[in-house]
Specification:
This protein is an alpha+beta fold. It is built from 15 helices and 16 strands. The chain has 2 domains: 244 residues, Bira Bifunctional Protein, Domain 2 (BirA Bifunctional Protein, domain 2), CATH 3.30.930; 98 residues, Anticodon-binding domain (Rossmann fold, 3-Layer(aba) Sandwich). The strands form 3 sheets. The protein has an 8-stranded mixed beta sheet with strand order 1-5-6-11-10-9-7-8, sandwiched between helices. Strand 3 and strand 4 form a beta hairpin. It binds adenosine-5'-triphosphate and magnesium ion (MG). One of its GO terms (molecular function) is ATP binding.
């Protein structure tokens, strides 16, 4: 029987993987300029980390985790998201003790969620994310949103929008919670069984329900904005003032409830507005999580962050018909005349690579004509020809494929000649 790839996973094949590298590189450069450093945490963690750090009532923890016992019967989970691990590491490595706060961290790597696979939803997907932990300041929230947006913008996306909301502080959420319970309780039997459990545990989640999203009581539910304390409202206003001044457009959506339990104050999503995009339009989600570090045993350290999947980012690029400027040029193809020169063609290929050129040769013992065909197909800039007779005199031929001119040179001048020609090509 042929073994197939697990459902909800993909092979990222040549032709596609270059896009991934490109996107990851652009993101890394953006983070570098914003003084974010990469953190690489394990792919699996103690299950408890996510129960505590993502929340017992979330979809992620209740139904989407890949959890297994290791050989010593310890419960482990493949990470479904990155923030909990980053916060754990922040505590574990005492980053709160550093002079410079917030600690600015980014990550990029696979996440695992047992979901029903569809376009934009996989069981293994790659998230790029950032966290700024240690400071509560509206400037940090605004910078975080601008940072996430800039990744999309630098890749050329235009049809995106930023949606923001505030979930307020503990007092605001508690008051809102009571109002939600009062609102839903009389008709809770009309909702799915998940929502019935959510009512007492975490009624906010009802607003996020994928089954009952069309129930009329969802649209008329009390809005969190009406329950914000003066302090929370002031913080939200400050965040918006920062966004206004840095000219980041946004729309407000008081019904936007993010999937994770630990959010407070600012929450945001970036959505694709492109017509070609599928049903799932959220590209990126983020927000503030002031209680998380404390929840994980560290000192109270407010944080804010975002996560986006590369899958949805690439889908958005495709929907806007943006092609990434991925370089795939071949500088040098080394043609060998006769099999006897094979070691020398290999030597010249390696020497070109060592000098920084992309270089290739034939491995199929093709005739000279066939080798030239390959060089042509691969769009080689230069073809180097090694023949037995020339070789006896220490000579090789370099052909410039753009001009068609060729030159016999001493093998000892090989790299210098390539460099000179490459340089001439650039300045012409
Ligand atoms: P959704 O409502 O689409 O399930 P979520 O609230 O679960 O999203 P987050 O946990 O906030 O999403 O993750 C942040 C981002 O990660 C999402 O905006 C999306 O780009 C991406 N993402 C989440 N789940 C998946 C998945 N299963 N496959 C691909 N990308 C995903
Ligand atoms: Mg989800």
């Amino acid at each position: 029987m042929k073994i197939q790839i697990p459902r909800g996973t993909v092979d990222i094949m040549p032709g596609e993987s270059e896009k991934w590298q490109y996107v990851e590189h652009v993101a890394q450069e953006i983070f570098k300029r914003a003084r974010y450093s990469e953190i690489r945490t394990p792919i699996f963690e103690h299950t408890e980390l996510f129960q505590k750090g993502v929340g017992d009532t979330t979809d992620i923890v209740t139904k989407e985790m890949y959890t297994f016992n290791d050989r010593k019967e310890r419960s482990m989970t493949l990470r479904p998201e990155g923030t909990a691990s980053v916060a754990r590491a922040y505590v574990e490595h005492k980053l709160f003790g550093q002079v410079n706060q917030p600690a600015k961290l980014f990550y990029c790597g696979p996440m695992f969620r047992y979901e029903r696979p569809q376009k934009g939803r996989q069981r293994q997907f790659v998230q790029i994310g950032a966290e700024a932990i240690g400071v509560q300041d509206p400037a940090v929230d605004a910078e975080m949103m601008a940072l996430a947006l800039s990744i999309y913008q630098e890749l050329g996306l235009k049809e995106i929008k930023l949606v923001i909301n505030s979930l307020g502080d503990k007092t605001s959420r508690l008051a809102h919670r009571e109002a939600l319970i009062a609102h839903f309780k009389p008709s809770i039997h009309e909702f799915c069984s998940d929502c019935q459990t959510r009512l007492e545990k975490n009624p906010l989640r009802i607003l996020d329900c994928k089954v009952d999203h069309a129930h009329p009581l969802i649209a008329t539910a009390p809005s969190i904005i009406d329950f914000l304390t003066d302090e929370s409202l002031d913080y939200y206003t400050q965040v918006k003032r920062h966004l206004d001044v840095i000219e980041v457009p946004y729309v407000e959506d008081a019904t936007m409830v993010r999937g994770l339990d630990y959010y407070n104050h600012t929450t945001f999503e970036i959505m694709s507005e492109s017509k070609g995009f599928g049903a799932i339009t959220t590209l990126c989600g983020g927000g503030r999580y002031n209680g998380l570090v404390e929840e994980l045993g560290g000192p109270a350290s407010p944080g804010v962050g975002f996560a986006m999947s590369i899958e949805r980012l690439l889908a958005a690029l495709a929907a806007e018909e943006i092609t990434l400027p991925i370089a795939n040029h071949l500088d040098v193809f080394v043609v060998g005349v006769g099999e006897a020169v094979s070691p020398i063609t290999l030597k010249l290929t390696l020497a070109a690579r060592k000098a920084g050129f992309t270089a290739e040769r034939d491995y199929l013992s093709k005739k000279v004509k066939g080798q030239f065909k390959t060089a042509d197909r691969e769009n080689a800039r230069f073809v180097v020809v090694v023949g037995e007779e020339e070789l006896a005199e220490g000579l090789i031929v370099i052909k410039d494929m753009t001009t068609g001119t060729q030159e016999k040179i001493a093998m000892s001048d090989y790299i210098a000649t390539l460099q000179k020609k490459q340089h001439e090509g650039e300045t012409n």
